[in-house]
Write a structure and sequence with these properties.
This protein has about 290 residues and is an alpha/beta fold. It has two domains: about 60-145, Beta Barrel (Elongation Factor Tu (Ef-tu), domain 3); about 155-285, Nucleotide-binding domain of ferredoxin-NADP reductase (FNR) module (Rossmann fold, 3-Layer(aba) Sandwich), CATH 3.40.50. Helices cover about 25% and strands about 30% of the residues. It is built from six helices and twelve strands. It has helices spanning about 15-35, 125-130, 165-180, 200-210, 245-250, 265-275; strands at about 60-65, 70-80, 90-95, 100-105, 110-120, 135-145, 155-160, 185-190, 215-220, 235, 255-265, 280-285. The strands form two sheets. The protein has a six-stranded antiparallel β-sheet with strand order 4-3-6-1-2-5. It has a six-stranded parallel β-sheet with strand order 10-9-8-7-11-12, sandwiched between helices. The longest helix is centred in the first third of the chain and has 23 residues, at about 15-35. The radius of gyration is 19 Å and the shape is globular. One of its GO terms (molecular function) is oxidoreductase activity. It comes from Caenispirillum bisanense. This is Ferredoxin--NADP+ reductase. InterPro entries: Cbr1-like_FAD-bd_dom, FAD-bd_FR_type, FNR_nucleotide-bd, MRET, OxRdtase_FAD/NAD-bd, Riboflavin_synthase-like_b-brl.
């Protein structure tokens, strides 16, 4: 496993944002080349079929795409004119007549909408996303809504996520950096079965290294002894199993801390019950 990225010294906030964006773009290019199979070109005598246009939705185009694992797709979509949203919100995407709601990873100031989606075996939308390619037509259906919003009345924030459950938290953190919210104190515990499922490990590690007062990032794997996790040197166990240890280590008191749990239903329900029993305010969202 690769170690944490090395940051240049004396970065300003603007330089940090540019540095992180360059690393994200480079990572996408590497992953696209390695993970996404090339699309066979039709013979010259066969006209290439046009992409299906979304119906009843704002038209969009897939700009970038990579596959961190065979069952994950990370992609960006051109943001429709006038489209606005709050960090942590979700929107319905339409692809070949099928619609599903997904939480945006991107922050509102970014020029494109970004998504990290876990493919579900047998799912209609998952089957369409599995064959997605840059340049494909995709619809933005309806207004953004719901999601997990940051509790502006809390000083500290304990965030627990599984795989794509990190999406709203990345959006919230990008927005916080953009706004210079150095008053926030966030501890983010990100759980997954395998280390390659941490879709934003490099970005969040870089942010935590540059702004340790803003973010503590704790990725943890629940199957550390499997070959796929060979070389893993980070935390071990389910995200919800680390709650008490993380609370104690970072002195997170219920009086000034709001907790959040997002992702797999089992983790979210277990975490919410445990945190609620300890007296914390808890905001949740499930993705099953």
């Amino acid at each position: 496993m690769r170690g944490p990225p090395i940051l240049p010294d004396d970065l300003s906030l603007r330089d940090l944002l540019l540095w992180v964006e360059r690393r994200r773009i480079a990572a996408r290019r590497r992953l696209t080349a390695r993970r996404v199979a090339p699309v066979a070109r039709p013979a010259a005598s066969e006209p290439r079929p046009a992409a299906a246009a979304p119906t009843g939705a704002a038209p969009g185009t897939v700009l970038t795409l990579d596959a961190p694992t065979p069952d994950l797709r990370r992609f960006t979509v051109a943001k429709p004119s006038g489209f606005s949203y709050a960090p942590g919100q979700s929107v319905r995407l339409e692809l070949e007549g099928t619609r599903r709601r997904y939480t945006m990873v991107s922050a509102p100031h970014e020029p494109a909408l970004e998504f990290l989606v876990e493919l579900v075996p047998g799912g209609r939308m998952s089957a369409r996303l599995r064959g997605l390619r840059p340049g494909a037509a995709i619809g933005i259906a309806g207004d953004p809504k719901g999601g997990i919003a940051l509790d502006t009345g809390a000083k500290r924030h304990l965030m627990l996520a599984t795989v794509t459950g990190v999406n709203p938290f990345v959006s919230i953190l990008r927005d916080a950096v953009r706004r210079g919210r150095t008053d926030l104190r966030v501890v983010l515990v990100h759980g997954a079965s395998y280390a390659d499922e941490f879709g934003y490990n490099e970005e969040l590690s870089a942010l935590a290294a540059a702004h340790p007062g803003l973010l503590t990032y704790i990725p943890t794997v629940s199957r550390p002894d499997e070959p796929r996790n060979a070389g893993w040197r980070g935390a071990r166990g389910r995200a919800d199993a680390l709650i008490e240890a993380v609370i104690a280590r970072h002195s997170l008191a219920p009086a000034d801390t709001t907790a959040y749990a997002c992702g797999n239903t089992g983790m979210v329900e277990t975490a919410a019950a445990r945190l609620g029993g300890l007296g914390y305010r808890v905001r949740t969202e499930t993705y099953d």
